[in-house]
């Protein structure tokens, strides 16, 4: 039986080594990657954060710093943590992150989570490099929302080590991780990935390598159905969102959630599926979605989509 060692770190957090992970590599510090790096560092893991350019690294680190300060100051305000412990937690979290543009640094990692943009050409080159530098025991994971894990396994040439670890936005708050296996994934790698996800205080669910896995396969057609409903003049975006919040108990309505996820991301997912499965009616691409993306109104990240945004919140 495997022994589970637990380490205490500042802020009374702990992590398990049953997964055999002590160093986590995160490639890409954007919307998802910064949250994944933060979640791992807050739990006591050493993190190697890799970006293409120094300015992206600095942007990602700032985002992590702001978020960890926000979470910690809330915990202090609520009396869940002493101010001194909170300050130490912020400092130790940031100190655990090594930021670099050198992909060779991934050689020391026990798990690598790729969270770069959904561009297969870029991923092909990247996975080729990953395959050359990683350890034989390294869990190689993609946070892709809709691309095939099997395709990336082929690019890196290490299919037994390859899985999907699909986190949700905002990673700091969302409790789910979809753990995705292909026919070639080594069951030991899969079991370690499940344990690693639990050690981040997330709930993992198992899924096979299929378009959209579980959540996006159900969620993205729901978001685009809401857009189509608005296009048909059934209701306004505001009333659709109010209806789903108050009538179905969702934390956000679908129009706001599409903006929150990013309309370019929604279009890339549904557009890709429509091309691959042209007879599937659930994969119809709304004209309003195409128009918003063409106009550069990508949702929260550009300050406007179906709604206007003020930072992370809907504008008043
Ligand atoms: N860092 C730190 N804290 C954060 C944060 C961040 N990035 N984002 C939110 N928070 C904290 C806030 O500070 C706040 O803390 P408090 O409760 O202690 O005051 C708490 O989260 C709640 O935030 P808000 O008060 O701003 O607003 P809400 O109560 O509405 O919660 C939400 C925000 C958690 C985003 C909630 O609206 C929600 O769950 N929305 C649905 C999100 C969702 O469905 N995500 C999945 C998208 S699909 C996806 O990611 C897959 C991809 O592949 C496309």
TrEMBL record:
Annotated positions binding CoA: 67, 78, 145
Positions of the record's site feature: Important for catalytic activity: 166
InterPro entries in alphabetical order: 3-OHacyl-CoA_DH, 3-OHacyl-CoA_DH_CS, 3-OHacyl-CoA_DH_NAD-bd, 3HC_DH_C, 6-PGluconate_DH-like_C_sf, 6PGD_dom2, Mito_3-hydroxyacyl-CoA_DH, NAD(P)-bd_dom_sf
Subcellular location: Mitochondrion matrix
Molecular function in Gene Ontology: (3S)-3-hydroxyacyl-CoA dehydrogenase (NAD+) activity; NAD+ binding
Root EC class: oxidoreductase
Keyword RNA-binding: no
Catalyzed chemical reaction(s): a (3S)-3-hydroxyacyl-CoA + NAD(+) = a 3-oxoacyl-CoA + NADH + H(+)
Gene Ontology biological-process entries: fatty acid beta-oxidation
GO CC field: mitochondrial matrix
Predominant location category: mitochondrion
Domain (3-hydroxyacyl-CoA dehydrogenase NAD binding): residue spans on this chain: 23-209
Keywords for this protein: Fatty acid metabolism, Lipid metabolism, Mitochondrion, NAD, Oxidoreductase
Top-rank taxon: Eukaryota
EC number(s) reported in the record: 1.1.1.35
Pathway named in the protein's UniProt entry: Lipid metabolism; fatty acid beta-oxidation
Location of the 3-hydroxyacyl-CoA dehydrogenase C-terminal domain: 212-309
Membership in a protein family: Belongs to the 3-hydroxyacyl-CoA dehydrogenase family.
Name of the protein this chain belongs to: 3-hydroxyacyl-CoA dehydrogenase
Source organism per UniProt: Chrysochromulina tobinii
């Amino acid at each position: 039986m495997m022994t589970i060692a637990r380490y205490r770190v500042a802020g009374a957090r702990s992590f398990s080594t049953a997964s055999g992970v002590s160093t986590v590599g995160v490639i890409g510090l954007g919307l998802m990657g910064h949250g994944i790096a933060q979640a791992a560092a807050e739990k006591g893991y050493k993190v190697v954060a890799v970006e293409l350019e120094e300015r992206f690294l600095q942007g990602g680190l700032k985002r992590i710093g702001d978020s960890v300060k926000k979470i910690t100051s809330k915990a202090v305000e609520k009396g869940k943590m002493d101010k001194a412990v909170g300050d130490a937690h912020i400092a130790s979290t940031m100190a655990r992150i090594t930021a670099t543009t050198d992909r060779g640094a991934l050689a020391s990692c026990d798990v690598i989570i790729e969270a770069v943009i959904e561009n297969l050409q870029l991923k092909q080159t990247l996975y080729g490099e990953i395959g050359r530098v990683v350890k034989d025991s390294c869990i190689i994971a993609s946070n892709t929302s809709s691309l095939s894990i099997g395709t990336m396994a082929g690019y890196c040439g290490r299919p037994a080590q390859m899985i999907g670890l699909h986190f949700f936005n905002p990673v700091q708050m969302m409790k789910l991780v979809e753990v995705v296996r292909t026919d070639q994934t080594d069951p030991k790698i899969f079991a370690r990935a499940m344990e690693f996800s639990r050690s981040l205080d997330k709930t993992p669910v198992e899924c096979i390598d299929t378009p959209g896995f579980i959540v996006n396969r159900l969620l993205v057609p729901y978001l685009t159905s809401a857009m189509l409903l608005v296009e048909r003049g059934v209701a306004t975006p505001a009333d659709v969102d109010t209806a789903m919040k108050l009538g179905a108990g969702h934390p956000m309505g679908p129009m706001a959630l599409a903006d929150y996820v990013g309309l370019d991301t929604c279009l890339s997912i549904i557009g890709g599926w429509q091309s691959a499965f042209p007879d599937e009616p659930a994969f119809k691409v709304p004209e309003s979605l195409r128009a918003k993306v063409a106009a550069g109104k990508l949702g929260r990240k550009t300050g406007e989509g179906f709604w206007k945004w003020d930072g992370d919140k809907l504008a008043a």
